[in-house]
Write a structure and sequence with these properties.
heterodimer, A: alpha+beta, 3 domains, 5-stranded antiparallel β-sheet, 10 strands, about 10% strand, globular, B: disordered C terminus
Chain lengths: ~750, ~140
């Protein structure tokens, strides 16, 4: 199997390289046959990469531990879904997945453009082929997934923390995002190379861009959710380099999605759009690089590896090559109009772009600061989360505000009438919400205001920003109310107009309204989702409560209106771990809410034969006498202790399963969307005395719910749309006539 | 240059300048997340430096001593060659990946007694039992 995989990968590389070269040659010699051959090369590369993936998956399913990848990330006892998912548990497999997705997307691009965009296609195919070639060089020569050694009896197994449903679908989702940005990038490059820089290149890839943006966003959310339920610290975002890596292309991608609208309508910002698509692609590559090279130390990143220099070279070639091409073509990218007023839709989109790119640049600077400072001064300096928060939160709030302004403000120049008509109601709604929230903060807000004033007088800006923190949540809620009101007004007006004009019922009018202009109303839905996400983030980070207490069975813990009784614990031996499962009852404001089970697991090191035997023995007793079963597990704990003192090191890997009670009851509206989050830090297997860390996270479920709304909105945006098709056809006509 | 254009340039420059200013304020804040990143050896070579540090090392096998029912841990980190070592005292959430020989980063500062008091503990463990590839003799 591994031989087959080796060959498939090598032939895939040859096909991809042929596609890149032949496609480029066809632009020089105008050989149509050559171009067809290049496109077939991409298709062949896809088929061969699929073959390689099948070969590797067969290795995982057959427990072929002579393959390094299988040995490191799988084991005999690993459940089937995790054997399949272990493919992207390691570096070489992840790169193979990249190649698989990219070649799959390239195939779709080739197949859907057989009859159209023929002028752009040679360069598109060449660019896609080049990127694919790079990833296949990596998987062929630097990090081969088929590298192997002698056959081994059992594998090391996937890190227990990665054995989570979300962790299985999170990397492929994120990769669909990372890789998806390659398509608009390839069309952008083709547009530049062929000097066909009208709006065709991004119109024809609009759905690709939304697709990539959507998966990138969904991937980020899944990663946060995984961190939330798996890492046991009650949070979901830590400005870790790998998280930042995924956020940056999403930010510039968002900017790109918005700024192309200005080019569509006004023929402005052409250079800027090219810049954004190049930056987004570079950041996607850089993101993969950061995640996989370990160049910046991170909780997630893997051991430093050999792919670093190759990535750096590739990134440099893409970055400088693309911008050199852009500079050569500056004359073709002249703006057809200019900004007329600060109070206009163009300007609000421009500012939104500045915020998004500004935040992305800040994140990039802070994330890579250890490298920069080392190069400059020889000392590595790292930047922690407080710095990210201080700089980014205020700008995120401005951005949130612009979400409300952008879609409603008039093009060109807003009149006083336009502003009054669209913004009076929403502005009042926002102001009232803000005032109410400040009132609820009460004395804290007054103190903070005084601190801000004092800080300003003394020019102590650090103190100013510290004090401002108190105002961020009320501001966030006020602005959120403003944005939601603008969207509500829009929907209400649209529905009312249809009811008047066509005499439709409210529901039908609403459905048809959305259906007739999916892009616009899908966009509004995405905005609403984003606002809900912001509400969840603001509340759960500002108003979170936590405590750590040691409890014996029957003890009670109290926090923020909750009471938690520790009912008891039991010991279990399952899959490949032993667990102390604690059972607790949760009472919310005096009312019984839930019974939860939170676990502390230990994965014994199966490479010690006596440990393996004791574990299997305990597991075997599971269906028998409960007392003997429990005694066997207690013995196992004793054995672990003895082994550890004898070996002088740990022979188990701990993992924690948190328990969460989500409040969605309308009987306690003030707690709607709140989580009661329990982590057992340590459980004594004899007495059951346990150390519990408990969090109360208000509104945190708004974050996940807002994510779902976002998904729904993006889904609406990519549905086939008659209006969009017409626009695209018109753009192609213009293009063809220009060519003729 | 006309007034409109100037206005846009001023606003743009203003936004960029404010961002830069906030970055400067944020990085100058004491204990605001600014930390020197060093290896154990580098940390030891500079004596016991004052200030906030992130120290990278490997957990010396057998030194993990879990206290207070798992909310506090005492351990020693060492550099790859095992020459320089640093005792660490950490209270907080101990990541599941924190095991013998795990590659860890601790953030905090030294106490007068030479123990490094960490407020943050990050551990990465590329795969579960790498250290046990060759089980010790007698196993």
């Amino acid at each position: 199997m591994s031989t087959l995989g080796h060959f498939a990968l090598f032939l895939a590389l040859a096909s991809a390289a042929w596609a890149a070269v032949a496609s480029w040659l066809s632009t020089v010699s105008r050989g149509r046959g050559l171009q067809r051959s290049a496109e077939r090369g991409l298709l062949a590369a896809f088929a061969l990469v699929v073959l390689a993936v099948v070969a590797l998956e067969t290795g995982f399913l057959r427990d072929d531990f002579s393959l390094d990848a299988v040995y490191h990330y799988s084991s005999v006892s690993q459940p089937l879904p995790y054997k399949i998912g272990a493919l992207w548990g390691g570096q070489s497999g992840s790169l193979l997945l990249w190649a698989l997705i990219l070649s799959g997307m390239s195939t779709i691009v080739v197949l859907t453009n057989r009859m159209k965009n023929r002028a752009l296609m040679p360069w598109v195919v060449s660019t896609l082929g080049l990127v694919l070639t790079f990833f296949l060089i990596l998987t062929n020569f630097i990090a081969s997934p088929f590298a192997g050694g002698p056959m081994r009896a059992d594998g090391v197994g996937l890190n227990p923390q990665l054995k989570n449903y979300w962790m299985m679908i999170h990397p492929p989702t994120l990769y669909l995002g990372y890789v998806g940005f390659t398509v608009p990038f390839a069309f952008g490059i083709a547009a530049l190379a062929t000097r066909r820089t009208s709006d065709l290149w991004f119109r024809t890839t609009r759905r690709w861009t939304i697709f990539a943006w959507f998966f990138q966003g969904a991937g980020i959310l899944m990663g946060s959710y995984w961190a939330y339920i798996e890492l046991g610290w009650g949070g979901y975002w830590a400005w870790d380099p790998v998280e930042n890596a995924s956020l940056m292309p999403w930010l510039t991608g968002t900017a790109f999605l918005h700024s192309v609208m200005i080019q569509e309508k006004k023929g402005m910002m052409k250079v800027w759009n090219m810049t954004l698509v190049i930056l987004t692609f570079c950041l996607a590559i850089f993101g993969t690089f950061l995640t996989r090279s370990g160049i910046i130390s991170s909780v997630h990143s893997f051991a430093t590896s050999d792919i670093g220099p190759a990535f750096a070279w590739f990134l440099a070639v893409v970055f400088f090559g693309s911008f050199a091409l852009l500079i050569l073509r500056l004359d073709d990218l002249k703006s057809e109009a200019r900004m007329e007023s600060v109070l206009s839709r163009e300007a609000s989109f421009l500012f939104n772009n500045m915020m998004l790119v500004g935040i992305a640049a800040t994140v990039l600077l802070l994330t890579t600061f250890p490298l920069i400072s080392e190069a400059a001064t020889g000392r590595k300096v790292t930047m922690g989360p407080p710095i990210f928060n201080l700089v980014n939160i205020p700008w995120a709030l401005v951005l949130l505000f612009l979400i409300g302004v952008g879609p409603l403000i008039a093009w060109r120049k807003a009149t006083a009438e336009n502003l009054r008509r669209n913004f009076t109601g929403p502005a009042l709604t926002g102001a009232w919400t803000l005032a109410l929230m400040l009132l609820l903060e009460g004395r804290a807000a007054a103190h903070a205001a005084a601190d801000v004033a004092r800080g300003l007088v003394r020019l102590n800006f650090a103190a100013v920003f510290d004090a401002l923190k108190t105002f961020y949540p009320p501001l966030c809620f006020g602005i959120a109310a403003f944005v939601l009101a603008t969207v509500a007004v829009e929907f209400w007006r649209g529905v009312r107009a249809r009811r008047h004009q066509y005499g439709e019922g409210a529901a039908l009018a609403f459905a048809r309204l959305v259906w007739r202009n999916k892009r616009r109303w899908g966009g509004y839905t995405v905005h609403v989702g984003f606002v809900i996400v912001c509400i969840g983030v603001a509340a759960s980070s500002a108003y979170r409560k936590e405590t750590v207490q040691v409890l014996a069975p029957k003890d009670v813990l109290k926090i923020d209106g909750y009471a938690m009784t520790y009912d008891g614990f039991r010991l279990e031996a399952l899959d490949d771990y032993v667990a102390a499962i604690t059972e607790v009852s949760v009472w919310q404001d005096g009312r019984f809410a839930a019974r939860l089970a939170a676990e502390q697991r230990f994965h014994p090191n199966m490479l010690f034969p006596e440990l393996r035997a004791a574990f299997l023995e305990a597991k075997r007793l599971r269906d028998g006498d409960p007392e003997r079963y429990t005694a066997a597990i207690r013995d196992l704990f004793g054995l672990i202790e003895r082994l550890e003192s004898r070996e002088g090191r740990e022979v188990k890997t701990p993992s924690t399963e948190v328990a969460i009670h989500k409040s969605f009851s309308l009987r306690a509206p003030q707690r709607f969307g709140e989580d009661f989050y329990v982590t057992p830090l340590g459980v004594d297997p004899m007495t059951g005395r346990a150390n519990f860390r408990v969090f109360v996270n208000p509104l945190v479920n708004f974050l996940w719910f807002g994510g779902l709304v976002l998904v729904l909105g993006a889904g609406v945006c990519v549905l086939p749309d008659a209006r969009e098709r017409k626009r695209l056809a018109a753009a192609m006509d213009v293009e063809d006539r220009a060519a003729a | 240059m006309d007034g409109r254009r100037l206005k846009f340039i001023l606003i743009g420059t203003g936004i960029a300048a404010t961002m830069a200013f906030m970055l400067v304020v944020a990085t100058q804040k004491p204990d605001g997340g600014f930390a020197y990143y060093v290896t154990v050896r580098e940390y030891k070579e500079h004596g016991v430096p004052a200030g906030h540090f992130r120290v990278n090392g490997k957990v010396a096998p057998g030194t993990i001593e879990r206290r207070d029912n798992g909310s506090r841990v005492l351990f020693t980190i060492a550099d790859k060659e095992g020459n320089a070592t640093l005792p660490v005292d950490f209270t907080g959430i101990i990541p599941d990946t924190f095991v013998d020989e795990a590659d860890v980063v601790v953030e905090g500062r030294s106490r007068p007694d030479g123990v490094f008091e960490a407020t943050k503990l990050m551990a990465k463990c590329p795969s579960k039992y790498e250290s046990a590839k060759t089980p010790a003799s007698g196993v």
